[in-house]
Amino acid sequence: MVVSVYLSRRNERLRLAESGASGVVTRGERQVSSNVVFLGLTSMFTDISSEMVTAILPVYLTFQLRFTPLQFGTFDGLYQSLAAVVLVAGALVADSRKRHKEVAGLGYALSAGCKLGLLASGGAWLPTVTSLYVDRTGKGMRTAPRDALISLSSAPARLARSFGTLQTGGHTYLVAGSVGSPRLRVLREGVECPSLSPDNTRIVFKRARLTTVGLVQWRLNVLDLKTLKARPLAETRNVDDQVEWLDNDTVLYMVDTGVEPTNVWAVRADGTGTPRVFIQQADSPAVVHS
C-alpha cells in the first residue's frame, strides 16, 4: 500500500458537519501564522545543511577517515537509529513540561553547533563522529515539539483539513484525513493529485484513462465535494502535472507534448470554454492566494 499525500485545506463546512463542532473562520483571518512560516523556513535550511553532509558522508568516512565496511556499518546503524530514539524522549519532555519551544530550539541549536564542530575536527575521526551524532540528536529532539508548535500556532478551525491520494492494489482513491487521527476516509476512486478550490467546495484532479493504443493518458476533472460527482474539463490532452487553482473559476496546469516547449495553460473549471496559454515556456505553476 502506498499513500501519496497532496495537502489541501479542508472544506470547513464539510468538516464541521462531520464532527458536529462549531467554529467560524472569518474572511480576513490569516491563512498561515507567522510561527508556521518561520518554523518552516528554519526547518528547511537546517535540513538542507544536514542533508549536504549526509550526501557525502559515506565517501568522506571511507576514503578520508579510512573507515572499514564494518566500522562504517556500525556508525551508520547508530546514526540512523539515534534520531528515532531521541524523538520519543524529546516528545515526552516537551509534552509533559509544556516546553515545546525550548526543546525544539535546543534541537535546532545542537544541529547548528555541530557544523562548527565538524569544521574544528581537523579530520580526526572521534570529534567528527561525535559532531555527526550530535546533529542526529538535534534532529530527533526538535521534530515532535516543532510539529506541536505548528499545530498550536494554527487556528482550530483550520486544522485537520487535508485530502490525499491512496494507492493500493493498482487503484487510486481520494481520501480525507485528520492530522490528529490515524484513519483515512475514502471518498472516491480514480482520483490522483487533488487540489482544493479557494472556496473549499471542489477538487480538481487528474484521472488515468487508457487510449485506443493501450497508453495511459491523464485527463483533468473537477469533483464537487457536496455531491461527489466529477465533471471532465475541456482540456483533452495528457496533463501529468499537479493542477493549481488560479481562482474559483479557472485552473492552471502544464502540458508537455514532448515536441514543443512546455507552457502553462488555463481552462475553466466548469467544463466549458477552450484551453488557452497562460504562461509561455513554463511548467508546474504554484498560485499564492492572498
Characterize this entry briefly.
The protein is of the alpha+beta class and 290 residues long.
Report the major sheet: 4 strands, antiparallel
Structural class: alpha+beta
Q: What form results from the Cα inertia axes? A: elongated
One letter per element, helices H and strands E, the order comes to EHHHHHEEEEEEEEEEE
**CATH fold description of the largest domain:** Neuraminidase
Number of strands: 12
Element layout with pairings:
Layout: E1 2-4, H1 12-19, H2 34-64, H3 69-97, H4 100-120, H5 125-152, E2 162-168, E3 171-177, E4 184-189, E5 192-196, E6 202-210, E7 216-224, E8 230-232, E9 244-245, E10 250-255, E11 263-268, E12 276-279
Antiparallel strand pairs: 1-2, 2-3, 3-4, 5-6, 6-7, 7-8, 9-10, 10-11, 11-12
Helix pairs in contact: 2-5, 3-4, 3-5, 4-5
